[in-house]
Write a structure and sequence with these properties.
The chain has 6 helices and no strands. The protein is mostly helical. The longest helix is centred in the middle third of the chain and has 29 residues, at about 90-115. It is globular, with a radius of gyration of 18 Å. It starts with a helix and ends with a helix.
């Protein structure tokens, strides 16, 4: 029992140190953090576009809804993990905001920028291949651009490095 306790303390200390100490960060960790944000963004983007299209909204209100939902689902996925670690809601919200805001913002800028400049993508309907192709490519580009941002943030003890300390 004592040996297990000591190992657990070492593991917690290592995680705590890793989460706050700047240093080299692998691309795998950055990609995992980016994929986490991408998942929330993709859910919000697709749901926003479906709702906006179903309600007959124009491009601007649909895009605004998609962006709001992308942030909401991005934060929600992070909150779920932090809250399950026993952190109170107020602290969990602060951690999620600190961890995900820049990542989601960069991802949304790239994603929506690609959609906005892609000829015909803004007017494509959910039933058209152009809609899904443009969305998939824009999200893939957002992932590629956002991964180095997350790597930089994690290396400085920011972003998902803060969330990492709550994963046991």
């Amino acid at each position: 029992m004592e040996q297990s306790h000591t190992h657990h303390e070492h593991h917690e200390h290592h995680e705590h140190e890793h989460a706050h100490a700047p240093g080299p960060v692998g691309w795998g960790m950055a990609a995992k953090a980016t994929l986490h944000c991408l998942t929330g963004c993709a859910i919000g983007e697709v749901l926003g576009m479906i709702v906006g299209t179903a309600l007959g909204w124009g491009n601007l209100p649909t895009m605004v809804l998609a962006i709001v939902l992308a942030f909401f689902f991005g934060y929600a996925l992070t909150l779920r993990g932090i809250l399950s670690a026993g952190v109170d809601l107020r602290s969990a919200v602060r951690v999620a905001l600190a961890a995900d805001t820049l990542s989601i913002a960069v991802m949304e800028l790239i994603d929506n920028g690609v959609i906005a400049v892609w000829p015909g993508a803004m007017d494509a309907q959910l039933s058209e291949a152009l809609f899904w192709i443009a969305l998939a490519i824009s999200l893939a580009l957002a992932f590629v651009v956002t991964t180095p941002v997350n790597k930089w943030m994690i290396g400085r003890g920011k972003g998902h490095a803060v969330v990492h300390q709550y994963h046991h």
